[in-house]
Amino acid sequence: MSEPFIEITGLGRSFGSAAALRDINLVLAQGERVALLGPNGAGKSTLLKIIGGTLCPDSGRISLGGLTPAQARVKPGFLGWLPERAPLNPDLTVLEHLKLTCRFLNLSSQKTKEEIDFLTEALNLGSKLGRLTGQLSLGSRRQAALAVSLLGRPELILLDEPSSSLDPDEVRRLRDLLKNLPSGTTCIISSHVLEEVAKVTEKALFISRGRLLAVKKWSQLGQGDLAESYLKEIERSANEEENQPGEKS
């Protein structure tokens, strides 16, 4: 593998007495596209929030292209981050959100127009640009938040359930957009829609009960139903971990 772009070592996070993440270790090269898979409550969103710099870990270390998550979050053009509940201002229009983000990215007026035009076409946002985000449907707000997170072609993209509330055509548009990201873009996508996320990533990270159990290429899961293969991998990796010697937390 080429030089590491994301390095996570010994990452842990608890909420009260409940451990959300336990000793997460992960290395990804620049340009890798991975899916983050696991059952509800496994720690996927917590991990993305920590990488995205909106939540601090209790232990461990993260390097994102040599930056801490806090540094990456405020470096224009580095991080595109779509949380599960994107914090859009309900009193701003979709276009106002996009223009404000372009201002943060220090884009020229010409580049701002090019970026907004591109994402408007790619995500079919034309009829929604002038509407307040507080008046949009869940799916349309998701589209707007996706556009905001993808402005400026960021080096690192974190997407938490990006296809949630999208209709089939919107899901297809998102898939096409993600497939055609620049080759150096690193992407981590948390999703329960296995068939879709498998089309835009190269491998899957399996997480359960706060532990990263396995990292597998999709081809290593075998032929047949992806959901069945996913469940078998979660069960196999969990059993393998339970049988390892040493202290269990």
Question: Terminal Cα separation, in Å?
Answer: 31 Å
- Computed CA radius of gyration, to the nearest angstrom: 18 Å
Gross geometry: globular
Which class do the helix and strand fractions yield? alpha/beta
Helical residues, percent: 25-40%
CATH topology of the domain at 1-78 and 158-165 and 191-249: Rossmann fold
Helix and strand pattern: EEEHEHEHHHEHEHEEH
How much of the polypeptide forms β-strand, as a percent range?
15-25%
Contiguous helical run count: 8
Total strand segments: 9
What's the CATH first level of the domain at 1-78 and 158-165 and 191-249? Alpha Beta
What's the mean pLDDT score?
92
Largest sheet: 6 strands, mixed
Spans of 5+ residues with little confidence (pLDDT < 50)?
A: none
CATH architecture of the domain at 1-78 and 158-165 and 191-249: 3-Layer(aba) Sandwich
Q: How do the strands of the widest beta sheet line up side by side?
A: 5-6-7-3-8-9
